[in-house]
Amino acid sequence: MLSALADLINRRPWPVLTLVLAITGVAAPLGIHVRDHLKPRGFDVAGSGSAKARELIAQASGTDPASNVLALVRLSAPLETPSSQRTIAAVASTLRRDPAVAAVLDARTAHNPAMIGRDRRSTYLIGALRPLNDKQQEEAGKRLLAAFAGDRQVILGGNPVANHEISKTIEDDLRRAELLAVPLLVLLSFFLFRGFVASLLAPLAGGITVLVSFFLLRGLASVTSLSIYALNLVTGLSIGLSIDWSLLLLSRYREERATTADLQLALRRALLRAGHTIFFSALTVAASLAALLVFPLRFLRSMGYGGLVASTVAMLVALVVLPTVLRLLGRHVDALTLPRWRDPSRLAEPGRFWHGLGRLATERAIPVATVVVTVMILLATPLFRIHWTTVDASALPASTQAFQADRAINRSGEFLRNGGTPFYLALKAPTPAGAPAAAALADKARRLAGVRAVAPPRPLSDSTWQINLISTDKPYSAPTQSLVRKLTALKGAYPLFVGGDAASFHDERSSIGSHLPLAIALLAVATLLILFLLSGSLVVPLLALLMNALTLAAAFGALILIFQDGRFEGLLSYNGQGALDLTIPLVLAALVFAISTDYGVFLLSRVREARLQGQPDRRAISGSVATVGRIVTSAALLFAVSIGVFGTSNIIVLKILGVGTALAVLVDALLVRCLLLPAVLRLCGGQAWRLPPTLARLHRRAGLHQDDEAATDPRARS
Fold it and tell me: What is the pLDDT of residues 22-55, one digit of tens each?
C-alpha cells in the first residue's frame, strides 16, 4: 500500500496536491462554524437517579431545579425597611422579564429564612428557569448578567451564570494561550526542524488536519450529540500529531537523502519506513482515545469521537500531504537555514549527546533502569490519596460574579452554608397517601448525619413532592457523598430520587467507576494487539504497556502534589480545591497514553528495523536511541509548549490539563523512551523479540510488514 502511494506521489504530485487543496477548500468554510453545532458541557448521566429527580420536578413544576439563578442583593438598610423592599421588588421584576425565568422566589415566598443574611442587610432571590438545554441555560445566564450590568447591589450566581462564565473564561484563556504559543512554537520549530521552510511542515499539516477534522465533527454532530469541549482536544491533538509525524518523516527523508542523490528514491524509502511507523502510531492513538467511548457521559464520548477523527485525519495528512510537499520542495525543504545545517549528511547525523544517551542506556542498563523506575515510583506514591471534585463556581476567578455569589451564599458564613446549592428529594406519591409519606421521608432525612436542615415537603402536583435539603459539608465532599448514598437507601413504597449538585456528582462518579474497568481492558487489549503487529513480539507490547502505566501514575502523582495539595499557588495563579476534577484526568490519561505509545512506536520501529538489518541488540538499541531520541524529545517539547500554555488559564481544570500533560510527555520522552525502555530491552536481550512458531506464522500472515521489509532489504537501497 505504501509502495503504491509513494509511486503515485512521485509520478503525479501536482494532481495529488490539487485534490488535497480542493478537499480542504470545501471543508474549511463549513468546518470553521462547527462550534455552532456542538453543545456545552455534557457531564450529566442520562437515566441516573439525579437525572430522574430533575426530570420529575421539571415535569411537575415547569421549572428546572438544577438551573436556578441566584441574585444576591446587598441592601443599604435592614431588610424590613421600605427602601430595601423596593430594591428587592425591582430585582425580582428584572428577573421576571427574562423569557427563561418561570418563577421568582424570595425568602418569604420560598418559606426559607436561610435566604436572608445574618446581618439582615443581604438576601438572595431565586430565578427558577424553565426546562432548557445547556446552551439555552448559558444564554439565559448571559442575558441576566447584561440586565444587571452596572448594578453594584446585585451579584448573580447559580449554575446558568457559572456555566456561562466558565465557558467565556475558557474561550478567552484559549485565545490568549494561542497568542502565547504561536511565537514560541515558531522559534522552537526553526531550531528543532533545522530550517525555516522545514519548520512550516508541521503548521501546514496541523492546519489541514484541524479544518478537515472540524468539518467531519460537524457532520458527526448531525447524528449524535457532541460537547463543545471536543474542539479543544481536536486542536491540541491535531497540532501534536502533526509535529510528531512531520519530524519523523522529515528526519527520515534527510537520512535517505544523505545516502542517495536520487530525491524520488529518497522520498520513497522515507515514506515506506516512516509511513509504517506513522500508521501504527495512528492506530495506537485512535485506540487510546476510543476507550473514552465506553463512558456514557457526553463530555467523554465527545473526546473519544474527536480523538478518532483527529488521529485518522492527521495520519492521512502525514502519509499523503507531507510526502507530496516534500516531493515538490525537493532540496528546497532545507532552504532558509543556518550554514551548518545545509549539508543533508550533517542534518541526518545524530549529535554526540544522543549517541552518549544510547550508550548509557545500553551499557549501564541496570543502574539506569533502577534510577528511572525509582524516580517514577516516588512521583506516583501520592496516587493512593487522590480526591475528586468537579467544576463549579469555585473554580472561577475571584473577579467573576458566580464565584463571588457562591462564596457569599455557600462558603463565607454570611448565610447558612451550602444553602444556595441545589439538593433535594423528589418523591412520586399520589394523594392522599402522599402527604404523610413525604412528611415521614423528611423526618427520616432530618435525622441523618450530614444534614444541616430539611425544608417542609412541597407538593408540586397531585403525585409529586419536593423536599429541599441543606448539607453540612460541601456537595462534592466525602461526607456529603456518603449522605447521598444514605438518602438513596431511604426508598420505601413510593419512587424516590435524590437530585441536586451532590447527587449529580455521585452519579457521575459511579458511572465512571463502573465503566472504567471495561475501558482499561479494551485499551490494554487494543494496545497489545497493535504493538504485537508492529513488533512481532509478545514481550515488547507488555513492556510498553507497563511503562505507559508508570508514566500515567507518575503524572497523576505530580498533579496531586501540585494541585490537590495546593503547592505553587502563587506561581501558577490558582486556588487549590483539595481535589482533582473527575473528568479532566480521564481525558489527560487517554491523551498521555496515546502520545506515550506514539513515542514508543517511534523507538520500537527503529529497533526492529535495525534488527532486520542484522545489527546486534546493543548496537540496534543504542543506535535507535541516538536516531529517534532527538525526534521524540523535540516532538515532546513542541507538544508540551502547545498544550502547556493551557497552564496560564484562569480555570483550574484547564490548568491541570496543560501542566499535567506537558509534564507527562516530557518525562515520558526523556526518562521512559530514551532511558528506561532501551535499558529494559537491553536487559531482555533477544528474548524480547522471540515468538512461538504459531504466533510467528500468524504475524507473517497479517502481511503488515511487506513494505517495511522491502525497505530494509539492502538490495532495495541500491
Answer: 999 999 999 998 888 888 777 888 889 999 999 9
| pLDDT tens per residue across span 578-597 | 889 888 888 889 889 989 99
Task: Tell me if 531 sits within 8 A of 604, measured CB to CB.
Answer: yes
Any residues with CB less than 8 A from the CB of 572 and at least 6 apart, and which?
A: 562, 647, 655, 659
Task: Dump the DSSP string for 152-204.
Answer: TTEEEEEHHHHHHHHHHHHHHHHHHHHHHHHHHHHHHHHHHTTSHHHHTHHHH
The residue assigned the cell 525502555 is: 677
DSSP structural state of residue 689: G
Q: How far apart are CA 305 and CA 286, in angstroms?
A: 9
> Among positive and negative, which fits the CA dihedral 138, 237, 205, 305?
negative
Where is 569: in which H helix or E strand?
helix 569-572
* DSSP state letter for 616: -
pTM over 0.70: yes
The conformation of residue 427, written as its DSSP 8-state character, comes to E
Residue linked to cell 486542536: 235
pLDDT in tens, 64-76: 998 999 999 999 9
Give, as one character, the DSSP assignment of residue 454.
E
DSSP 8-state code for residue 40: S
Q: How far apart are CA 267 and CA 278, in angstroms?
A: 15
Contact status, residue 170 vs residue 235, Cβ threshold 8 Å:
no
Element (H, E) at 497: strand 496-500
Contacts of 329-333 spanning 24+ positions with Cβ under 8 A? 329/197, 330/263, 331/257, 331/263, 332/197, 333/195, 333/197, 333/198, 333/201, 333/250, 333/253
End-to-end CA distance of the chain: 21
Return the beta strands (E) in 336-444 as ranges.
Answer: 388-389, 423-428
pLDDT over 90 at 625, yes or no: yes
392: left (phi over 0), alpha (psi -120 to 50) or beta: beta
Cα 317 to Cα 310: distance, rounded to the nearest angstrom: 10
Q: How many CA atoms lie within 13 A of 133 on its CB side?
A: 8
Q: What is the mean pLDDT of the chain?
A: 90
Q: What share of the chain is helix, strand, coil (3-state, %, to 5)?
A: 70, 10, 25
Three-state secondary structure along 499-534? EEHHHHHHHHHHHHHHHHHHHHHHHHHHHHHHHHHH
| Pick from 210, 202, 101, 195: nearest CA to 148 | 101
Q: Would the pLDDT of 707 be above 60?
A: no
Pull the grid cell for residue 392.
463549579
